[in-house]
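Assess this one:

_____
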Amino acid sequence: MKDAHPPHTTEMSIQHAFETSSNVGISMAIWKSYVKRPDQFVKKLQSFGLNTPLGLDIQGEGKPRIKNVTDKDWFPVSLPWMSIGYEVKLTPLQILNFYNTVANNGRMVRPHFVKEIQNHGKVLRSFGTEIIRDSIASPQALAKARQILEGVVQNGTASELKKSPYKIAGKTGTAQMTKNKFGYDKENPSYQASFVGYFPADAPKYSCMVVVYAPSNDVYYGGAVAAPIFKEIADKVYSNHLELHTAPLQLDTNVNVLPLAKVGMQKDLKKVCSALNVPMVSKDADARLGSSTINSDAVVTSERKTIAGIVPNVNGMGAKDAIAVLENAGLRVRMRGKGLVTRQSIEAGTRIQRGQIIQIELGL
């Protein structure tokens, strides 16, 4: 066994070994503690519930396996290799649930995919919190585990994540994959990169595991491949949940706070602006359709003209307005996508032929 990035010292703490993903450091610690009693190491893993299926709501959950000393495929080197994740079988969801348990002060909860089932707004069935184990370890041990997981981000292999405005705790993973019964290919190795963690670390609410199978051979470490994907997901969740923001939001006074308005019926735009107390100026007060721009003081609308017998321009409209305009012009409409119209199959200004079909594509 060796480290991908050998340490610069011959001695290191457990925390430092974990933070820097030192295979040698972790395996030596486990070897010294359990070499004379490997069965106790296995029992400890089993006490975490890692060898028991979670009992998911849907079929097909993979069966976990924590190798036992009595198994035929137990070898003298199984103990150190198991200490860094090899020679065991766990699905990503089972691993994620274990990290949830650490974040949840040791209480293991069964994962559910659905919060409740409704029929026309009436709740038919709810899925509440289901506790599998009240505690997997002492509060002191769990506190140390969370400290180590935070250290991976603050000082270790996932240090790129510490730039976030919220704290993240987790662990990178880089595993060499076997070629089934042919074993490991030393000349053309294949890897699996992963990152599993939770956030905000000081008050955990969300968790995620990212697994990238067979990334580029040039860049395949978990910290370089999977952790950035985790951050993108976490940033999206964080930005959509203001209750996670500890610092007060500051308004950028250099940004125009007037809203952008899509092309559409001018009467609807007037109604919305009035309800939101947004100042609006119309260059063509009697116009049916309006295109909008923004100046420093108001939303400004001008008429988007339509001519009988000519294909209208519906780019920038929502689906409702675009379909109404096109059908009133005598066209049959097909639609794909969602958001605002980004493309129309017949160019605006073309003469309409009876029964002609136009397809519009919408995008965000």
